[in-house]
Design a protein that fits this description.
Its main location: membrane. One of its GO terms (biological process) is response to antibiotic. The protein is of the alpha/beta class. It is built from 13 helices and 14 strands. The strands form 3 sheets. A 6-stranded mixed beta sheet has the order 6-7-8-3-9-10, with helices on both faces. A 4-stranded antiparallel beta sheet has the order 2-1-4-5, with helices on one face. A 4-stranded antiparallel beta sheet has the order 12-13-11-14, covered by helices on one side. The protein binds adenosine-5'-triphosphate. The site of adenosine-5'-triphosphate has 12 residues, from strand 2 and helix 1.
Length: about 325
């Protein structure tokens, strides 16, 4: 069977000399969840727009469920469901009315459309909310309806764009469970775009880390983290320290490597982080640049990102959203 998604060498330029995609390639198998992870501006939305036939690539090829996005956009649209960040639901209509209307838009007859709406209302625990206007829904309920709307026509590939942005922790957890079940029970292939590191870690069987229009690393979350041998050591100062004495002090310590200084924060790797810390702190004290805080953690996806993209995730997030910045560096994906 054809891959759910096969994209090869996608290039997209926008006016103003913006190269949104610079040869991006991804594949997604049936029933798999691929997490497209990257900061604002990395090229995730452009990739999704090409795969959902909204934008034409300047170069490269892409097929969804075996249908070429340029030659057979009509067929592609039949087999995909898209849940974008902006809700497509009519706030003045009820959940049931929204679902029935969506089914009718796909050409389903009245009785069958109502049956499908009922199935989805039950599937997503929306029974109680079915007869209420969408404008009265909580964020989590609305998101569940959005996903249900994306599934009305039984797509084979679902595009989920930042599915839990703005949800409280409980609603987030329940959305994660729904998404995992969709891929598991219904063999739906899901392309999840997110810039929550923990979401990607939790949900995606495979991750493609996107930076500056291309995939810089790909693999299971564990494999990606496993490539980073040893522990991550993170240091922080009250204000940005002078770089030369910090580097000189740490350069003398054996076993400390991949030192990246980024403003008042520093990350390094050590085979045994806990054992390295006393020497690290002593060396910095002696050099007159004492650190204010130190943490040792198993590598997180943030560390993976740092290694492949050469900068911290939050720093790379050009818009500097609170969401990404709030991601704890040392513990984000640590296990
Ligand atoms: N219509 C457009 N015209 C000009 N530039 C664009 C257009 N759409 C996107 N870009 C630029 O292309 C680059 C990639 O944008 P894209 O939206 O694909 O990134 P993203 O990873 O989805 O980011 P976000 O998480 O903010 O959605 C960015 O530099 C963006 O400013």
């Amino acid at each position: 069977m054809a891959h759910a998604i096969e994209a090869d060498g996608l290039v997209k330029n926008y006016p103003g000399d913006v190269r949104a995609l610079d040869g991006l390639s991804i594949t997604l198998g049936q029933g798999e969840i691929l997490g497209l992870l990257g900061p604002n501006g990395a090229g995730k939305s452009t990739t999704v727009k090409i795969l959902t036939t909204l934008v034409r690539p300047d170069a490269g090829t892409a097929a969804v469920a075996g249908h070429d996005v340029l030659r057979r956009p009509d067929r592609v649209r039949r087999v995909i469901g898209v849940v974008s960040q902006r809700s497509g639901a009519d706030p003045e209509a009820t959940g049931r009315e929204n679902l029935v209307l969506q089914a009718r838009l796909y050409g389903t007859g009245g009785a069958q459309a109502r049956r499908r709406a009922d199935e989805l209302l039950e599937r997503f625990g929306l029974g109680e909310a079915a007869s209420r206007k969408v404008k009265t829904y909580s964020g989590g309920t609305r998101r569940r309806l959005d996903v249900a709307l994306g599934l009305v026509h039984r797509p084979r590939v679902l595009f989920l764009d930042e599915p839990t942005t703005g949800l409280d922790p409980e609603a987030r957890a329940s959305m994660w469970a729904e998404i995992a079940a969709l891929a598991g029970d219904e063999a739906l292939a899901i392309l999840l775009t997110t810039h929550y590191l923990d979401e990607a870690d939790r949900l995606a069987r495979r991750l493609a880390i996107v930076d500056r229009g291309g995939v810089v690393a790909e693999g299971t979350p564990d494999a990606l983290k496993g490539e980073l041998r040893g522990d991550a050591v993170h240091l922080e100062w009250g204000e940005t320290p002078e770089e030369a004495p910090v580097r000189a002090a740490l350069g003398r310590l054996p076993g400390l490597r991949d030192v990246v200084l980024d403003g008042p924060r520093l990350s390094a790797r050590a085979d045994d982080g806990a054992a390295a810390v006393p020497a690290v702190l002593a060396a910095l004290d002696q050099a007159g640049v004492p650190a204010a805080a130190v943490t040792v953690a198993r590598p997180s996806l943030d560390d993976v990102y740092l290694r492949y993209a050469g900068r911290r995730f939050a720093q790379a997030d050009t818009a500097g959203t609170a969401d990404a910045a709030a991601e704890p560096a040392a513990t984000g994906g640590a296990r």
